[in-house]
Design a protein that fits this description.
CATH architecture: 2-Layer Sandwich
CATH topology: TATA-Binding Protein
Radius of gyration: 17 Å
Structural class: alpha+beta
CATH class: Alpha Beta
Number of helices: 6
CATH superfamily: TT1751-like domain
Strand content: 15-25%
Shape: globular
Order of helices and strands: HEHEHEHEEHH
Largest sheet: 5 strands, antiparallel
Number of strands: 5
């Protein structure tokens, strides 16, 4: 009965149509982070920014587990995306979020399918984004 209730709740909350990819890492937090950065560089890309939420929270006296967002800079892909639909600029650069919980380390990102639905992008660009994000996240977590 609890499972049925939970499924009904999810179906009626905003999460049912949400395209968040979540992967549990087999590595500790900082090793997962290093692996993400290494994979980004292996694709000849760079990090546009690294946002350390734990460090920011500490400055305000708030204690949270490790949590970092990495913005991935791919100027060629970003140019193609903005050329197809300038509104996508609000969601660029692509982002990977790594966070620690008692149950482990998790890596999440928005599925390119979400971009397809929101910005009506061609399948070729969706596949390009999907391959990139899957490659980086698989290397970092497996």
């Amino acid at each position: 009965m609890r499972l049925l209730f939970a499924l009904l709740f999810i179906a009626h909350s905003g999460w049912a149509g949400c395209h968040i990819i979540m992967k549990k890492s087999r590595y500790p937090f900082y090793e997962t982070l290093v692996r993400v950065i290494y994979a980004i560089k292996a694709h000849n890309l760079s990090t546009a920014a690294v946002i350390d939420f734990k460090k920011r929270a500490k400055a305000f006296g708030v204690q949270i587990p490790s949590a970092i967002s990495i913005l991935i800079s791919d100027p060629e892909l970003e140019s193609e995306l903005v050329a197809k639909n300038p509104k996508i600029g609000v969601d660029l650069p692509l982002k990977i979020y790594i966070y620690q919980r008692t149950s482990g380390v998790f890596l999440t990102y928005h599925s390119p399918q979400e971009f397809k639905e929101n910005y009506y992008l061609p399948e070729s660009l969706i596949e390009k984004m999907d391959r990139l994000l899957r490659s980086i996240s698989d290397y970092a977590t497996r």
